[in-house]
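agent: user wants the full assembly modeled, not chains individually. Plan: 1) parse entity lines 2) check alphabet per entity 3) run joint structure prediction 4) return tokens. Steps 1-2 passed, two entities, 480 residues total. Proceeding.
--- entities ---
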Amino acid sequence: MTYKLYKKEYDYSYSLGVFPTIELLQNHPKTTEKVLLHPNGNENQGVRKIVEFCNQHGILVETNEKLVSKLSRKDNCYAIGIFSKQSMSLSNAENHIALVNPSDMGNLGTIIRTVVGFGITNIAIIRPAVDAYNPRVIRGSMGAFFKTNIQFFDNFQEYLDRYNNDIYTLRLNGLRPLNKLKLNVNRPYTIVFGNEGSGLGDDFDDIGTGIVIPHNEQIDSLNLAVAVGITVHHFTNCTI
Amino acid sequence: MTYKLYKKEYDYSYSLGVFPTIELLQNHPKTTEKVLLHPNGNENQGVRKIVEFCNQHGILVETNEKLVSKLSRKDNCYAIGIFSKQSMSLSNAENHIALVNPSDMGNLGTIIRTVVGFGITNIAIIRPAVDAYNPRVIRGSMGAFFKTNIQFFDNFQEYLDRYNNDIYTLRLNGLRPLNKLKLNVNRPYTIVFGNEGSGLGDDFDDIGTGIVIPHNEQIDSLNLAVAVGITVHHFTNCTI
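--- prediction returned ---
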């Protein structure tokens, strides 16, 4: 099989770099098809760890300078993991975040890294959305992508029909300031975030509890990844 | 004068786009040398606001399609403000943030936007650091750059010699979890953040109060802009 620069329609994707590839192997050894190495990384400790792991688990390793440079578009990428995309479901009875129409790959990676760090590993993505399997998202997540369940929905009603968590929506017109919010911690919750530019539309006005992060009028809004970090930190910081 | 693609050594810089240019004009009309417009933006409401403002304040406006496209490297940039760099000092008796060796322009812009939204407009930058005047930083800040005082220092001691705020340092080995932190709100404070990759070095161990944002071991660290957002939100959310 010949591997080409990633495209959304492929049924596989890549972890670019040593650290994300270790995360891929440790979390999804069975869906890892192969690992590609760059010869310059032979002395790298992480690369040695990768080779050892692959030998133990019977995963193919190929040293291929040209292909690694081509797929990573970088000179200093030492390892690439090739893995098949699997459809995933979210865990019932756990907390979720739902991202409605996320459109920025870097932001999505940062969001994944952030929520995993605060213990939320179930992520609903409402389409249209940026391709979460794009290697740039995975790299931006620093490999935290491989510790999550990500499930895609065509609209938010589809998500509501399937899961029964308490819903909190972050909105500029939310009535409940985040810092005054009291949670019912006995029930799993889902925090819903809108698109980077447009936020959540009016159709979310009657869904769940609308919350807001109070900030002054010197700025229009917070960056989405920053808003997710502040919100999820507030929701989880009593329970870590 | 012929204007060229921005370089760090120039004594002027650019606001790229309608929104950042309006922020430039409203906050620093006296240091604005000129505004360049793209003819395609003639019907744009923001552009009209710019032209009106410039006429009132005697600021030169030039329509120059070629130069706007060249300086912005984009096809859809309608306005560019050209402003001279001014050395700034931080306000005594106000809260500050200090960024030690920030290295990512996008992150720096997001950080500026975030802290301005929470009411902190005095930013110390400890060199070596990314060029805060780079148009990418200004754009990343959504123009909030123009609402700040930014002062540069060659090392942190130089900052300490000059300002007398209470110091809080965000560190992975900080002893005080952010969510348990009680502040003395009668004294101005400075929150210190390290570099994106390496954080604050050992030389900060004995400076001020070390704080930490508790997260699990599934990630190495939080993204810097997210960490700044969570921390500054916590410090300021009682006072907005």
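agent: reporting back. Helices of chain B lie at 18-27, 45-57, 65-72, 105-117, 135-140, 156-162, 224-236. Chain B touches chain A at residues 106, 110, 113-114, 116-119, 142, 144, 147, 178-179, 213-216, 218-220, 222-223, 225-230, 233, 237-238, 240 (CB under 8 Å).
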